[in-house]
Amino acid sequence: RTLDGGGRHLLPGLIDSHVHFRTPGLTHKEDWAHAGRAAVAGGVTTVIDMPNTLPPLHTAEEAHRKAELLAGTTLVDHRFHLGVTGDDPSPLRSVGPREATSVKVFLAGHHTAPDVVRDPAQLEKVFRTAAEAGLRLLLHAEDDAVFGLLDSWRGAPAGYGGYERHRPRSGGIVAVARVVELVRRHGTAVHVLHVSSAEEADLLTAAAHTGLPVTFEVTPHHLSFTATETSRTGARARLSPALRDRSDRERLWQAVVGGEVATLGSDHAPHTRAEKLRPPAEAPPGLPGVQEMLTAVHTGLRRRAPEDSPDAQLSCLARLLAERPAGLFGLDERKGRLRPGLDADFVLFDADERWMLAPGAIQSKCGWSAYEGWTMTGRVLRTVRRGETVYSHADGQAEFGSPDGRWLDARRPGDLVPR
Ligand code: NCD
Ligand code: ZN
Ligand code: ZN
What we know:
Elements: E1 3-4, E2 8-12, E3 14-19, H1 32-41, E4 44-49, H2 60-70, E5 77-80, E6 82-83, E7 102-106, H3 120-133, E8 136-140, H4 144-154, H5 169-186, E9 190-192, H6 198-209, E10 214-218, H7 220-224, H8 227-233, H9 246-257, E11 263-264, H10 273-276, H11 293-304, H12 310-328, E12 346-356, E13 375-385, E14 388-394, E15 397-400
Parallel strand pairs: 3-4, 4-5, 6-7, 7-8, 8-9, 9-10, 10-11
Antiparallel strand pairs: 1-2, 2-12, 12-13, 13-14, 14-15
Bound molecules: N-carbamoyl-L-aspartate and zinc ion (2 copies).
């Protein structure tokens, strides 16, 4: 729910269930001090971090160690998605809901994908193990065998078909169909990440209608840009899965507005400017977005449905960025609702302010944004996390609170004890 405060709205603190904050091992790209500031400046009070770090996060013990490492370093409350290898998914059996409720699986490789499960028998085992352990699988659903086939047919170097043809849609569609079949066989709950094409959205919605435990995520990038942006700016606007066509983008919007999409995730995946300027085949895919997500998606919603009330639009965003991710990832007893005196996470949002993201306002360590020069509609004025103002903004000045973001241990419904 949102409350109307005369053009200013109160939203629940947002949960970004898809970020890459790069600790450990990749801290030249991003760290939790910078990313925490980016998060709260974007109205995000809780993030769930992806496991593709160096080394990657695989076990419950590693989750505890990572939480210790982060203590006192960041503004934002956090949880982790685990990673898994195809050789040995058995560590998943000893993961309790306290440590993690979800596991990311890469079905295809790219620069920052350390664990890729391609072998069909290993994939079966991962799906079976996750189902038995009660863990939700998060899928990076692309197929690099399909990419390889197309590259060789076009005579392009392996793994690369030019910016605008990089990782074509067919690789995503094939992988999504495979995932749906695996869910049908094993009953594993899955959440398909960064869905980029109309066909993937169609397939996943159809699968959900048959009663399969399948949900999906869309990113602000796929809602905001098309492949034209990648042709124009090169690697800067390249991510994996790639940006697609206008008709895909509009199909994704339809899925957001019509309730097919379960969550928005920023896929905040910073790389340095220098890395992005490397020759095309070596430039890593991914762009920052935790700071930009709420305003970017709000801007797009306004443009597409100007007749809808701001309250209806913000309710839609609160559902996709708080209520649904809280429910999917075991945070609903702790986050995602306004619970004054208990969580007290909320965001004061001016739905009408029009502004531009200036380079000096970018909080990510990478220091750049694909949304520079955009006119955004709607701005975060204040972010409160567990009762403390962690971000406020007045007269062009940003102020931040203290970096005491916490690792949230998810409890099962009913376990909640007042603090
Ligand atoms: C992400 C990264 O850089 O970690 N890149 C991306 O293009 N999305 C990884 C990922 O989400 O697959
Ligand atoms: Zn991914
Ligand atoms: Zn990602």
